[in-house]
Amino acid sequence: MKSTFTSLSRRDLLRYAGIGGAGAAIFGITGCGPGSSGGGGGDGATIEIWDYYGPPDSIYGRALQDLYERYMKANKGVKVDKRFVTFGEFNRLLLQSGAGGDLPDIALVNAFDTGKFAQAGVARELTSQVEDWGKSGKYFETSWGSTVYEDSNYALPHVADCYVLWYNVDHFKEAGFEPPKTWKELGTMAEQLSQGDRIGFAFSAVEGVQGATAWVIRFLAAGGDITKVASPAGEAALQQWVDLVKSGATSASVLEWIEEDTYNRFKAGRASMMLQSASYVNVLKEEAPDLNWKVALLPKDKVRASFLSAENLIITSGADDVDASWDLMTYMQHPDVLKKYLPERNKLPARKDLAQDPLWSEDPIWSVFVDQLATAWAPEGDVAVNSNEIFTYIQEAIQLAISGSASVSGALKQTQQKIDKLMAA
Amino acid sequence: MDQSATATPRDIPERGRQPRKPVVKPERTRRQLSESRLGKYLFVLPAVLFIGLLMIYPLFYNLNLSLHDVHLSNFLAGERPFVGLQNYFDAFSQPAFWHSLWISLLYTGGSILFAFLIGYGLALFFDRAFPGSGTMRAVLLVTYVLPSVVSGTVWRWMLQGDSGIVNALLQGIGIIDEPVHWLIHGPTAMISVIISTVWVTSPFVMILLLAGLQGIPPGLYEAAKIDGTNAWQRFRHVTLPMMRPVALTVLLLSFIFTFKTFDNIYVMTKGGPGDATGIMPIYAYDKAFNFFEFSDGAVASTVLIIISIVMALLYFWMTRKEEAA
After folding, report:
1. List of chain B residues whose C-beta atoms are within 8 Å of the C-beta of residue A123
2. pLDDT digit string (tens) for B74-121?
3. Fold entry, domain A164-307+386-424
């Protein structure tokens, strides 16, 4: 396909000037527009792409649909067919479609699952395209690492996100607190901030993978290795979770709360702090305009740690038009495109260079996320492939310890045995 | 209907059409008979295709999967080594497999017991005509027609430790002092999912049992009254024996429906806390679609299917026995 992209402003200018042919020539010379891979996206191509963000009329689905429409506008004759599949069903349906020989061209997958889909043969290897593209060095190491499986590339990062500490400024002012610098301080402050039906610190520890995230952050801060949870770091992290519940700094209901529940609690002023990703920044501004809140870097223990929450784009092994799919994926990573898309999507760029743009680096909220992103961890290699099991086992330990069904060390020991067995298989 | 298919040779001359070709006529009759049969089979074909494609094929696919070594890395590759019953032996050696079966039986048994008792009580209640009984029955059935995802979500909200209405109610009337975190402790979580299931299924039980109650000839009660029996004796010696076939049918159907429950528990607890409510369908789902151990998931599914088929066969056997009686 011939290059048809240019920067957004230039494209608009050219369109309004009505000199499309000349514009293409100018673009060919400058070669600095969004996603100008010079590859596929030929006329008449239809690119089917699956995501779990939401239908086109939802907040996040709309942002993605708008992005596709901008691409289609710039690439006449190319149709991008968005299909929404719920998060809970996404992996299953993608695998089933693979078995049935009916894969979409592109799938927007949880970054941690990239290795799984590479192993399953659902994701197509993209090493040569990535090398020709030559932009891998521009990405945060953790984000880029999530696209690699057994030293080969199988994806491009789509967006990045990470967890930070959200706090209620009014509650902190009343108590005379500043955001905690250490996890120990956080525990003390959370206990003092708890009063009535208000808790000091909200996080999710719900059944399944999501419920392990907060604890993994605490565990990594204590210097933990995810394959060795029965360790001093594991004991420190799990003991703090138990102590937070026992002291009333948080509620045992954390075992029932999904992340949305913690958000709702924070929004209602019934939690002074919460551990949360950037997904709710714009939503909170809209839904609780009077709430006085800020975000801060997560506290340290031995190190400062966070957790990468991200999506990658894979081209599937059943893609009809690989070049067209690659063209769309690289378009979606162009800085100008991302500057328009990411604020609507409440996400951060996975590109380091773009993260330094004033849009993020000078914003009091987003700059915290950008700083925290540098400390974000994501499972890689065998851990990534087995991450669902590992996180599920970790959540079981959290549940056992918080509910009092097992001691901290006993719960960790059980989980360690399961992880050892899994990793040895 | 094609009458010629049932025509006898004696009938044919009476029609006066081809009396001199008795040899040809039977041939044509056979052809017509064959065409007629084909036509009938064509009418049945859509149903056969439907059952074959949507029921038999998935069952066969699942069974086939359970006899091969299929995991993430060879799921799409096509190289699936045949391992015979090895996957079954492996599964049967896993404590988690037997735990899920035990949890399934516990959950099913508990749910059926209470659904049956409540359903029976409601059926006896509605067996007596009173103003508004029809409306009340219809209202009760709302729980049964609600999608289980909806009812599971509602129960999850109601049972939340901090903000659930159940705790607020129990605290309000002084039964508990502190909120109970129903869904985070194994025993209370199991009780919770059983309650939500009973809430959904007892109206269904009630409708079936009510039909059975209304089928008991009133003359039996009148005869029993003449014999000087009291209400309890009539219930004990007339209602219970007469309801036994219906009750057994209801119990069997309830077992089949409850044993394969998935969505209600998945929405409420995802099988947790830990694996306290991890019934076998959830175990199979996790194995296949969370951990991508497809063969292990298929083994669990096959065991579920076999148990359900055994119960279904028992149901058919009992139905026939009842009809024969």
Report:
1. none
2. 888 768 889 999 999 999 999 999 999 999 999 999 999 999 999 999
3. D-Maltodextrin-Binding Protein; domain 2 (3.40.190)
